[in-house]
From TrEMBL, chain A:
One of its GO terms (cellular component) is mitochondrion. This is Pyruvate dehydrogenase E1 component subunit beta. It comes from the Eukaryota. It comes from Dekkera bruxellensis (Brettanomyces custersii). One of its GO terms (molecular function) is pyruvate dehydrogenase (acetyl-transferring) activity. Its cofactor is thiamine diphosphate. The gene is PDB1.
TrEMBL record, chain B:
Residues 77-371 form the Dehydrogenase E1 component domain. The lineage of its organism: Eukaryota, Fungi, Dikarya, Ascomycota, Saccharomycotina. It comes from Dekkera bruxellensis. Its EC number is 1.2.4.1. One of its GO terms (molecular function) is pyruvate dehydrogenase (acetyl-transferring) activity. Its cofactor is thiamine diphosphate. This is Pyruvate dehydrogenase E1 component subunit alpha. Gene3D superfamilies: 3.40.50.970. The keyword Oxidoreductase applies. The gene is PDA1. The keyword Phosphoprotein does not apply.
Length: 363, 409
């Protein structure tokens, strides 16, 4: 049994994508892919502010390695949409320097794995500069790119960096799930005077989500630091972000059908800051909680959420310890049979719910 | 063995024993630079033939006219920086300055020459050896010394320290070797983007010249024709490693490969000034980037923790200081060319000393930032766009910007 909403949010099979055609005659589309959502958001921000520019590998003539910047070169020209050589440390530093001067760069990494080459410029040159300068030098910059695994791209192309960036004072870190997230958060990020890291997901780019006039408005922004209750529930809280929410929503349906359990699924949307009030409120309401992320368990986003809950008064409302669902502790294997064990999926989320609620094997 | 005479050049790639000057462009005696007053205000300077060496370009003219007042100003600038750095040396030893402190004594001609050649609309970015540049770009000595001593009156309100000083058109003060080079390229990118005629002087040392991100920057600057002057302050040592031991090619002005380069005697303010004007002119004409190598020397060690004698001899330091000091040379020129009398120059020295000493005194007496949470947490984010809570050392000490108080008390 599928609800309309589930049909739209379920990850499409490989090779399919629901492309919504937005023609003037037909009016606003009802669904849109995340890809088109990000594309349109960048287009609108480039239009709105002449100081905004996009820089990265293949963003211009290639139309984006994942076609996120399709059409932007044609519309805005090579001054605003700039192809770079394969020199992350160099062009990231260049973007930060341009931000020092008052421009508003969008620095795209083909994947966040490659941002490791530039991480000194992100952390030491961007994140810390406002503080070190005593407030004299703001750095209005967005670093964005796909984060976490794709499919079969193996160990060096599959890491999730949420926890690394989430630790740094001076950065904000966002991770959109839906089209409304992608548009609203990215626009806020571009307009934010601080450095923002926007962690996208390659497998989500082709996924469609419902949109409406409000979401499609050029001034649609979502405040950074606000989580979203994707699915209301009363028995267990699931804290997650980005593509893993697909599995969380499916798991929620499964435990409702199997046990009559109503899970509350929270889309964090923002890793730094975490929406702690929303997290605590949900825990107080449901008394049980799990976290779901693709990153490694050690020192991860889930670790931080569990620690925050434990240190807060929300801890007193827990009826069982929290559980983290994470990536497994290996470099990502290539063979599908093994890669299937590397990252969370729906059955694993179900097992997590069962554990904290003492159901199934834990009954 | 010292090579005398300005036309001989020591081969740069030959390894030399430690007790020799590794590479000199000119073992300069002050009389090599000539000056001729042309009228009441102007002097015609004639630089020695070996002041410049060009790579894929014609070097600047050796002869140029400049105002006598310009020379006086440059002298005062250099003496002030020298005095300021010497004060910092003393304060560091008195433990009033903590952490890292990198002196630029001996290298004054570069900061002063560049500033006198550019405008306030141009940018400068450099490494941690930045105090002289901070002063030249408009900070007072009190603000520089205040920052070194961690006072609220410091240029970064005490938050940055020696390596993180900023100002209008001055982007640090950068602690990570070489990181400033892509940043400077970005500053130039912004000028290019906006279509203004300004440039960015991006300074780095001989040690940083080997960084990969420098090569990455050169590539983009040349590809996109960016108005950036890459200026290598080659003081012969990257910390304790001589250029011979760090670099397969020590001709740093040629490292740009496809970017024209200029080697300059960085111990002669009259050469550095001319070179900086040439460079500014070059980029203003839209010729793209330029690489300059200022051949210079630092009298002090790498930083205050380094006596600077385990990898070079005291004789070498003494020799450079006695024969090539930029301050002493300009002093002698001004006297020889009738621009100032010995008495007047002595007065310049006294005035600079008095200014620096009084500014140091004021900075020393000034308060540190108050040990308050709102100051600790200030400027992590731009005011009005902070994240709601920043964690203290313990949860109880976490700070709420909305409450302007502790978040969980």
């Amino acid at each position: 049994m599928f609800s309309i909403k589930r049909a739209l949010t379920k990850a499409p099979a490989v090779g399919q994508s629901f492309r919504a055609l937005a023609t003037a005659a037909a009016g606003a589309p009802k669904t849109m892919t995340v890809r088109d959502g990000i594309n349109k958001a960048m287009e609108e921000e480039l239009e709105r502010d002449p100081d905004v520019f996009l820089m990265g590998e293949e963003v211009a003539q290639y139309n984006g390695a994942y076609k996120i910047s399709r059409g932007l070169l044609d519309k805005f020209g090579p001054k605003r949409v700039v192809d770079t050589p394969i020199t992350e440390m160099g062009f990231t530093g260049l973007c930060v320097g341009a931000a020092f001067s008052g421009l508003k760069p969008i620095c795209e990494f083909m994947t966040m794995n490659f941002a490791m080459q530039a991480i000194d410029q992100i952390i030491n040159s961007a994140a810390k500069t406002y503080y070190m300068s005593g407030g004299k030098l703001p750095v209005n910059i967005v670093f964005r790119g796909p984060n976490g695994a794709a499919a079969g791209v193996a160990a060096q192309h599959s890491q999730d960096y949420s926890a690394w960036y989430g630790a740094i004072p001076g950065l904000k870190v966002i991770s959109p799930y839906s089209v409304s997230d992608a548009r609203g958060l990215l626009k806020s990020a571009i307009r934010d005077p601080n450095p923002v890291v926007c962690l996208e997901n390659e497998l989500l780019y082709g996924q469609s989500f419902p949109v409406d006039e409000k979401i499609l408005s050029p001034d649609y922004t979502i405040p950074i630091g606000e989580a979203e209750i994707l699915r209301e529930g009363k028995d267990v809280s699931i804290f997650s972000y980005t593509r893993n929410l697909n599995f969380c929503l499916e798991a929620a349906d499964i435990v409702r059908d199997k046990y009559g359990v109503e899970a509350e699924v929270i889309n964090l949307r923002s890793i730094k800051p975490l929406d702690l009030p929303a997290i605590f409120k949900s825990v107080i309401k449901t008394h049980h909680a799990i976290t779901v992320e693709s990153g490694f368990a050690s020192f991860g986003v889930g670790s931080e959420i569990v620690a925050q809950v434990m240190e807060s008064s929300a801890f007193d409302y827990l009826d069982s310890p929290m559980e983290r669902i994470t990536g497994c502790e290996t470099p990502t294997p290539y063979a599908k049979s093994l890669e299937d064990f590397a990252f969370p999926d729906t059955p694993t989320v179900v097992r997590g719910i069962e554990k904290v609620l003492s159901l199934g094997a834990w009954a | 063995m010292l090579r005398l005479g300005s036309n001989l050049r020591v081969a740069c790639t030959r390894a030399l024993p430690r007790n020799q000057i590794l590479r000199t462009l000119a073992t300069e005696v002050h009389a090599n630079t000539k000056g001729e007053p042309i009228d009441k205000e102007t002097v015609r300077v004639e630089l020695p033939a070996d002041s410049f060496e060009g790579y894929m370009l014609d070097p600047p003219e050796l002869t140029y006219d400049t105002e006598k007042s310009r020379l006086v100003k440059m002298y005062k600038d250099m003496v002030t920086i020298r005095r300021m750095e010497m004060s910092a040396d003393g304060l560091y030893k008195a433990k009033k300055i903590r952490g890292f402190c990198h002196m630029s004594t001996g290298q004054e001609a570069i900061a002063v020459g560049i500033e006198n050649a550019i405008t306030k609309q141009d940018d400068i970015i450099t490494s941690y050896r930045c105090h002289g540049f901070t002063y030249m770009r408009g900070a007072s000595v009190k603000e520089v010394m205040g920052e070194l001593m961690g006072k609220r009156c410091g240029v970064s309100y005490g938050k940055g320290g020696s390596m993180h000083m900023y100002g209008k058109g001055f982007y640090g003060g950068n602690g990570i070797v070489g990181a400033q080079v892509p940043l400077g390229t970005g500053l130039a990118f912004a000028h290019h983007y906006r279509g203004d005629k300004n440039c960015c002087f991006t300074l780095y040392g001989d040690g940083a010249a080997n960084q990969g991100q420098v090569a990455e920057s050169f590539n983009m600057a040349k590809l996109w024709n960016l108005p950036v002057v890459y200026a290598c302050e080659n003081n012969k040592y990257g910390m304790g490693t001589s250029i011979q031991r760090s670099s397969a090619l020590t001709d740093y002005y040629k490292r740009g490969q496809y970017i024209p380069g200029l080697k300059v005697n960085g111990m002669n303010i009259l050469a550095t000034y001319q070179a900086a004007k040439f460079a500014k002119d070059w980029v203003a004409q839209g010729k793209g980037p330029l690489v300059i190598e200022f051949e210079t020397y630092r009298y002090a060690g790498h930083s205050m923790s380094d006596p600077g004698t385990s990898y070079r001899t005291r004789e070498e330091v003494k020799s450079v200081r006695s024969k090539r000091d930029p301050v002493a040379h300009l002093k002698q020129h001004m006297i020889d060319w009738g621009i100032a009398t010995e008495k007047e120059v002595k007065q310049f020295d006294k005035d600079a000393r008095a200014y620096v000493d009084s500014q140091v005194k004021e900075a020393d007496a000034a308060p540190a930032p108050e040990a308050k949470m709102d100051i600790l947490f200030e400027d992590v984010y731009v005011p009005g766009s902070e994240i709601p809570v920043l964690r203290g050392r313990i949860r109880e000490d976490s700070w709420s910007f909305a409450k302007k108080g502790f978040a969980y008390r």
